Each structure stands twice: as C-alpha cells, then as structure tokens.
Amino acid sequence: MIEPGSMPNMIFWCFCKGELFLPGMRLNKNIKIFINYFLGPALFIWLLFSIYQQVRYQPHLETSYHQISGAFTSSRSLYLLGIFGLMLVNWGLEAAKWRLSVNLVHPVSFWQSFKAVLSGVSFSVTMPNRVGDYLGRILYLPDGKRLKVISLTVISSISQLLITLLAGTVGCLLLKRQLISGGILNPITFQFAVFGLEVGLLILTLFYFNLGIIQITLEKWFRSSSYLYLIDSIRSFGMQRLIRLLLLSGARYAVFISQYILAFRLFGVDVSLLNAVWIMSLVFLALAVIPSIVLLEVGIRGQVSLQLVGLFTANSLGILLTSVTIWAINLMIPAIVGSILILGIKVFKRQ
C-alpha cells in the first residue's frame, strides 16, 4: 500500500475527503470547479505521456509490432481478435466484481463500474503494485463514500489472489519433475516452496471466509479509533457474496489462461494445452508475488515466462512476443482508454 506521507497518499486523501492537504484549509467552490474541470485533462496528458515514454523503450517492441501487423493479413488474425475480445471479457468480469463489492456502500451501474476499473488501470501503470487502482476507481463514487469502499476493493482483490495461489500450488505439484530437472528449483527448495504456498493459501482462505470475526476483533482492539467506519461494511459481506466473488475471479483467471493459449498459437509456441494451463499458473503466481509497477512488468513477465515456458519449448522469441502482446492488450490499451475517461470525471460530486 501507499506509505503515509507520500505524494500519492496526499493526493488520495485530498480527493477522498474534499480537503486541501494544508492545515486548517478547506477547498472553496472555485478550487473545486478548477479540480473538476481542469484536473481531468491534466491527468489525461500526464498519464498518456507516461505511457508513451515507457512503451517506446520496451524491448522487442518493434519486432512485436511487425509480428502483430503480419497477423492481421493471415489466418492467425482470428487468434489476435480472440485475445482482444477476451480482454473486454476480462475487464468486464473485474467490473462485475467491483460492482458486487461496492454496492454494499453505494449502488453503481455496470457501465460506471467498467469505467472506474479502466480509470484505475490508467493510474496503476505508474504506481507500485497497482495501488493506483484504488485511486482511479473511487473517483467515480460520491464524497463520503470513497474511503469506505477501500476495504471492499481489497476483499475483491483477495478473491483473485486466492484463485492465483490455488492454481499456482496445483501447478507446482503437477510440474514438480520439470521444475526440478529444469533447474528452476532443487528438491529441498521445492518442498519449502510448496509448504509456503499451502500455508499461505490456508491463512488467506481462513481470513477471506471469516471477515466478520476479523472485523469484531479489530473493533475490540481499536475501540477509540476514528477510522473504524472504514471497515463497517465488511460485516455485510455474506458467504453468498464471497462465493460469487470467487466464481467471478475463477472465470477471470480462465480468461487469462485462454488469452495466453491463443497467443501461443499466434506466435507458434508449441506447448500442449495442459502444460500451457499449469505452466501459466506458475507464471501468474510469480507475477503476483514479485513487487513491480505495470510499466516495468513486461520485462519481469518476459523473464519469468522465458524461464518457465522455456521448459517446454525453445521458441524464446515467441514466448517474449506473447508476453509483450498480452501486456499491451490487457494493460496498455485499457490504460489509454481509462486516461481518456478521466477527462469526464468530476472529483467532487453530490451524494
């Protein structure tokens, strides 16, 4: 999360509370008008410039561009169109998850949720571990409700992490022989890794399905805290809603896997269907635990994919092109669209 006192945290607090981050000073009407009608374009220019600066220096970008351009003129274009279509499904599922979560505090439409998710992506590209997701999304909520949905958004993220941990643990067990023989892990390290994954999965599962108990415990520990209202809505997270979030997360995970399988076919990476499913579960697991920012993630994603997918194929260029293409379609395109959507945001709204 954002460290206290950092600039992103100051901006975050300013947006959420409607107060200028200066002692004793509140935002007057003119300043609010300025922020509502001029901050959006300013953010749009900054985000678009940041994306451009980073994308232009990404490795293999020119090769990837030529490969993708050539795909449009061949039968492989169907694979590329499939990846684009699944990108919309991916973010649509994430929008459904966020809507399901925040409706406990403030009802939002699916379209509003979809725009919020894309705007979150545009903020997250320049912030570590995608903390910008929260900032981008809460701007679509009215004053007084923004801080309250942070805990709900975290729970939605935990549901996705649970699926990633579960699939990664299964993938690790099924590919034990390849991981050890390929020199990725030695037998002792493998045992420690599996044990750590199982313990982490157990703890996270217990946390996820016992939110009410955790809230009561926090309330007892911090009785005098003025921030307990931030977790009030957690108690309303019933078992049915938690399971629905997990199902949506599982569907979104399946979309990720399907995109990679199509990209492997697009770039001639010869990996069987089952091997692709389980090796990608390890790639996703590694990406979930390695701290990064989205704009640097393509390099990490490429290196991890080369190491793991390379256990089954020697097509290194195809693996790298797959990573760059999925990264660009799933993250950069939504980030650009989200930055455009920010143009229409009014930071301060009536409830």
Secondary structure: helix percent: over 70%
Classify the secondary structure makeup into a structural class: mainly alpha
Tally of alpha and pi helices: 14
Instruction: Summarize model confidence as the mean pLDDT.
Output: 76
**How much is the radius of gyration in Å?**
21 Å
Strand content: under 5%
Number of folding domains? Answer: 1
Shape: globular
Strand count, sense and closure of the main sheet?
Answer: none
Q: Give the CA-CA distance, first to last residue.
A: 27 Å
- The succession of helices and strands, N to C, reads HHHHHHHHHHHHHH
**What does the oligomeric state look like here?**
single chain
Low-confidence stretches: 1-27
Number of strands: 0
Question: What does this protein look like?
Answer:
The chain has helices at residues 7-17, 29-55, 61-71, 77-102, 110-124, 132-138, 150-174, 176-181, 187-208, 211-221, 239-266, 273-289, 294-309, 316-341. The chain has one domain (26-344). α4 (77-102) crosses α7 (150-174) and α11 (239-266) packs across α12. The protein has 351 residues and is mostly helical.
